[in-house]
């Protein structure tokens, strides 16, 4: 009884403290907003006047009270003296507010099939665009940080506007009916590759609208494919496989993430407010507008995007009368590029390409989607920490501990959260997949759950599995990954062992 009362008391105190804290935060946000409003109103009204007057305004805004001065000193900015110092206006606009003077975002109706009604995605803080922009974040995904560096170093003029001449897509993708279904696509802009054509008049008027998707053509050479051609296991058709050195003819697209926040929240079955708060807090408070601009529903997150590789006629992808093979791959740099043998990533990726080529040669088409979600989106540092923990486990690196070790280090076993992944398939107009080159139950569930049928799931053939990666693949099969074989038991899993440190020669 006493215990219960104590817990109740503690809970009450906790509740009161958090209420008080919340109140304090709200008050300071309110104060900040008022100050910012006053500041921007002043800046706005002086904007068109001469530099002298602007200087005067700045003097007026300088603190004169002794206390205030010392406060300001504490948060004094590092000196700006380098070449890039003239890149930005003297006054920093920390954030904006919906009812602020001059703020008038251009309309953006997510999920509208008519691009003129939908409107462009405008994320720029360029002086021509900051007041009318309708998206939070910056163009370029994670590369916006490099852009900032280039500006800071004086290597890039922040006012530089891209010359889009001849940058248009090399093939036509869409429009597809899915583009006008608000719940089908929430993590990329379906019109992202058509921006410069659809919104050319707004761009000509000075708005800094940029494409978030680019589509091009290429030839590519992959050692494994070359061997298949040399061994006669893949034929040269002059269209998909161009010659006996295995050169492939592809159409490829690069896609940057564009998130419609209410749609992303609903995919994860959370509320938009929680999503915004988490994105604000866990990026070190990088995007205050996630909090101050509830009217802006679109966010360009600073993360990697994806690439699409198309084998065969791109028009066949959305044609239900043509067969389609698909591999959706999440980045694994160690295996994909450097050939590390602890996992099956590169072998499965190449197998996905091989089968896509075959499908295209047989009159269908193949698609390989490559997501920048390194190490199950936990990142490569976490991944290597887990490798060490696995190899140093008492009893060795066994399949039964595979997911547990990841969870010990990262707190979760996977952060790829495949819920957003099918968006790119809907962008391509895919309605069914004949052959899905994946064993992942998460990918399968996400795709089928989004309304795309999968007729056949194709596991990686045994002969393509590197010895050391049996740990990973068996752990995954036991966890529910698709396999044509029986899932291993707990006892069997503990017998599947990877290489120990002693076997690795340095
Ligand atoms: Zn891998």
UniProtKB/TrEMBL annotation:
Presence of the UniProt keyword GTP-binding in the record: yes
Keyword terms of this UniProt record: GTP-binding, Hydrolase, Nucleotide-binding
Swiss-Prot/TrEMBL GO biological process terms: riboflavin biosynthetic process
GTP-binding listed as a keyword: yes
Domain GTP cyclohydrolase II, first and last residues per copy: 323-459
InterPro entries: GTP_CH_N (IPR022163), GTP_cyclohydro_II (IPR032677), RibA (IPR000926), RibA-like_sf (IPR036144)
Protein name: 28595_t:CDS:1
Organism name: Dentiscutata erythropus
